[in-house]
Specification:
The chain has a single domain (6-317), classed as Up-down Bundle (Na+/H+ antiporter like fold). The longest helix is centred in the middle third of the chain and has 50 residues, at 104-153. The chain is globular, with a radius of gyration of 19 Å. It is 79% helix and 0% strand. The chain is mainly alpha-helical. It is a multi-pass membrane protein. Belongs to the auxin efflux carrier (TC 2.A.69) family. The chain crosses the membrane at residues 6-25, 37-56, 68-85, 92-116, 122-148, 169-189, 209-227, 239-256, 262-280, 292-315.
Length: 322
């Protein structure tokens, strides 16, 4: 496999960014005390700009939702299955999110562009335009509900009625750094006004900084994390993300008669490694932080092999003209 291979050329920048962050952490160029501030910068500033701009400039009425609907059904089913298997708690929700949330932007875009061209990107951008809206909003609501239940069980909320607990959790999920800019951007897109370049350009610059800064932050955190104790768990999450997720997507697609380029792009998207947004979620809720950090790194390494195999199998069993 050469450096020109689509998988390698897409994964290598991600690996290098994590490695740069790891070196910066080990050399104490970025100290442990600064990690929380950097996490807040990424989660409360850069992600806000990325999500709002994406939704505000998306032409939702032009999107072919048929090709992505099944993707979210499969991802949602897998999320809840893992949540119930592991136990209904906020930590399990973060781990389940790691098993279904792909790095569609940093790795997916260049990979699909190199492998399938502009036609493939159309399908991927349809998926990306709703990726955060569907999966992150779903995860936020579930995690907030579970956190509320855990706080009630620990006596931190007194004897609040269940309806009030649910209402408070849903309110927290909506007034949250992830769903709020998505909803705001979607509502703004309905006006049809578009974004003036004076506003759009700084939002784009901030949004473009999200991926690199988040991955460097993963590396910094990795430098302060003992991977050994989490290697088994991270490997398990990586196999769920890079093997089980695309397998379920492929089986569901073929069972329902999907085929050709649309199915190939969806399966490849499912095969991508864990996205940095899950790392930020774990930081935000202080749940499984070290495990998720290790999973981002391990899944990226695993995906070099598994995505290559996935694409080779797709080329054989799912001709793009199908």
């Amino acid at each position: 496999m050469t450096l020109d291979h689509p998988v390698v050329s897409s994964m290598l920048p991600v690996v290098l960014l994590i490695a740069i962050g790891f070196a910066a952490g080990r050399l104490r160029l970025i100290r442990g005390e600064a990690v929380r501030d950097l996490s807040n910068l990424v989660f409360l500033v850069l992600v806000q700009a990325l999500l709002f701009r994406t939704m505000a400039t998306a032409h939702l009425e032009r999107l072919d939702l048929r090709s992505v609907a099944l993707y979210y059904i499969v991802a949602g089913a897998m999320f809840f299955a893992l949540l119930f298997i592991q136990g209904l708690n906020s930590r399990s929700a973060v781990v389940a999110l790691a098993a279904i949330f792909s790095n569609t932007l940093m790795i997916g875009v260049p990979l699909v562009q190199l492998a399938y061209g502009q036609a493939g990107l159309v399908h991927l951008f349809t998926l990306i335009s709703m990726h955060a809206l569907v999966l992150l909003t779903l995860a936020t609501i579930v995690i907030e509900l579970l956190v509320a239940r855990e706080q009630a069980a620990n006596g931190q909320q007194g004897h609040r009625p269940i309806a009030a607990t649910v209402a408070r959790a849903v309110k927290n999920a909506i007034l949250h750094p992830v769903p709020l800019p998505i909803i705001a951007g979607f509502l703004y897109s309905l006006t049809g006004l578009g974004l003036h370049p004076v506003v759009e350009r700084p939002l784009k610059l901030l949004g473009d900084a999200f991926g690199p800064v988040a991955l460097v932050l993963v590396g910094v955190t990795l430098a302060q994390t003992a991977i050994g104790p989490h290697l088994r768990g991270a490997t398990g999450i990586s196999l769920l993300k890079c093997v089980v997720h695309p397998l379920l997507m492929a089986l569901a697609g073929w069972a329902l008669g999907f085929g050709g380029l649309a199915l190939s792009v969806m399966v490849v998207a499912a095969a991508l490694p864990v996205g940095a947004n899950v790392f930020l979620f774990s930081q935000r809720y202080h749940k499984a932080e070290e495990l998720v950090t290790a999973s981002v790194a391990v899944s990226t390494a695993v995906a070099v092999v598994t995505v290559s195999i996935t694409m080779a199998l797709l080329a054989r069993w799912n001709p793009l003209g199908g």
